[in-house]
Amino acid sequence: MAWMAQDHPIFTESIRRIRAALGDTGLPPLQQQVLERLVHSSGDLSLGTLLRFSEGACEQGLAALKQGAPILTDTSMAAAAVAPMAQRTLGTAVHTVLEWAPDAAPAGSTRTAAGMQRAWRALAAASPAPVVLIGSAPTALEVLLQQVAAGAPAPSLVIGMPVGFVGVSESKKHLAASGLPQIRLESSRGGAGLVAAAVNALLRAAAAPAPLPSS
After folding, report:
1. Which of 75, 151, 155, 191 is disulfide-compatible with 163, CB 3.0–4.6 A?
2. Which position among 8, 40, 95, 174 bears the catalytic label?
3. Bridge partners of 71?
């Protein structure tokens, strides 16, 4: 790919080795790129068995990013991992729900959940709607799903990969059942680095030069 030609040789060789190790996954090119970035970021070739895409999710997310959709993350760590690629490619705005979070967690909730509730009220009217990354906070994912179920605008894409053992499995099941465009990672696996890798794959694809027309 023309875009890959701009990459450092170490990255290019890493992707070549990952492709060889993965073999024929049967994934379309865009989903394959997401998987390769996840494996590159984690060093874990088994992630392909846990990765799930709703139909057309990558394409919807890619289109939204090209049209100027902002990115909303659940943590500063995820935002920091996305911001350099966002700036180099489309100049996409990157926000974290912590910008809207209270100083202390409300009783029975979390700062990220409260921040998501306020952030979605502020950002959901954007057109196209934000691409949402959840790598650490299942409570924020649950709040997002509840707001959409109650009639709030839906995100352009949810990359749902909260990591951990409390509320994580439940939030991923709720995301799977929501019908929203989504990329998710089953099991307790996930994290800020992985959600960032997934959206960075889409940002790279969005900024890649269009192929030359055939003569």
Report:
1. 191
2. 40
3. 94, 131
